[in-house]
Structure formats: structure tokens, C-alpha cells
């Protein structure tokens, strides 16, 4: 009999373990596409920028629900590491000796939390900038621009971190976010 909250993840034929469910992977790649679209269309193609922003809001609502009710590796509790653990993990990366995690590692989890927070800020301020009450408000517009730029910069840092971890762990992490599978622990 399984204890409540205990989920055994089935291996596939190649020995990989299912980690990222299809909905989380679709969310991840759709969010990446919408963020890039919104960033590159800002002040150029306003309607495309708006639609990308509204899609981001929908994706964030999905992520909120999925972070509470989704499968184990999609849940927010997998992103919860103490600041000390994150700092120790970043030090281990600098020493080229990071521990491998089947789910998100402490540095990746911290990045996900910061990005989610900034996505909420950019979405709310973007929506506020379009409303009559806040239209033309320079504080709202500045916060929207700065948070959007911060997301773009952190996305580049995220990609660099993923590529670094690919080298250090000898594992194709982008492919794992496509297939949903990672190799078993210890392999």
C-alpha cells in the first residue's frame, strides 16, 4: 500500500525516468515562445505584444493550478529550497561538482521562482498600462519595461545555466524538457 503523496515514477524501455509531464513541457515551451514574442514585439507590433501578454497570463494561471494539483515534479514544493541550499549548490557548480537532481536542482528552482514572480509583475503592469486608470502612468510603464527586460536577461542566464549543467552532468537537459525523461539516478 502506498503512502499518501508517494508516487513511483515508471522507467521507460531505455531506462529513463518520466520527470516532466506533457502539460508542464507544453507550458514551458509555450511560455518561452510568448515571452520572446512579447519582448521582440514591444513598441513595434502592439497587438501581437498584447496577445502574447494575455497568453502569458493564461499560462501563469495554468502553472498556478498545476503547481498545486499537478504531478509530483510539477508541484511547487519541488521548487522549495532554502537560500543556504541554493548558495551551496551554486558554489558546487563553481567547483564543477554539482549534485545531480532528478527534478529541479536548487539553482534552477530559484531561477524558476524569480522568473515566475517577474512574469506576474510584467503581466499585471502590462494589463494596468492598458486600463484607463493607469494608462500613461510612467511608474507602471517603467516597471513593466524593467521587469520585461529582467525576464529576458534571466532567460539568457537560465539557458546558459542549463547548458553548463549539460556539460557538468553529461546530460542533455533540453532534450529532457522535450521528451519528459531523464536518465535514472546514478547513471
Unreliable parts: 1-12
Mean pLDDT: 90
Count every helix, treating DSSP H or I runs of 4 or more residues as helices: 6
CATH superfamily: Transmembrane di-heme cytochromes, Chain C
- Going across the biggest sheet, name each strand in turn: 1-2
What is the CATH T-level topology? Fumarate Reductase Cytochrome B subunit
Helix/strand order: EHHHHHHE
Main sheet? 2 strands, antiparallel
Query: At the first level of CATH, what is the class?
Result: Mainly Alpha
Q: Tally of extended strands?
A: 2
Shape: globular
How far the N terminus sits from the C terminus, by CA atoms, comes to 29 Å
Q: Rg from C-alpha positions?
A: 18 Å
Count of all domains: 1
> What structural category characterises the helix and strand content?
mainly alpha
CATH architecture: Up-down Bundle
Helix content: 55-70%
The amount of beta strand, in percent, is under 5%
